[in-house]
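Why does residue order matter? Because the sequence determines the fold. Keep that principle in mind as you read this record.
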Amino acid sequence: MTDLRSDIKAAIVRALKLPIAADEIDSAAPLFGAGLGLDSIDALELVLEIERSFGVVIGDEETGGKVLQSVDAIAEYIEAQRKPA
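Structure:
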């Protein structure tokens, strides 16, 4: 599970070209607002990167709002999507 979170952090830094190291991102910290301070443009870039890198689909804005809260929330969503039905 830790490896997934590391991969997500690396994807965030790569997709958004952030000037920080991936390991500086707190898994539980909010990605928007007081956390990393991301905005709606960043959200779109991040959704595309998550879908491309992890093979999951974030189909609508409501799902995106829940999934993009933190690295932990993204990891939980990816894990849930990868489970066999």
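The radius of gyration is 12 Å.
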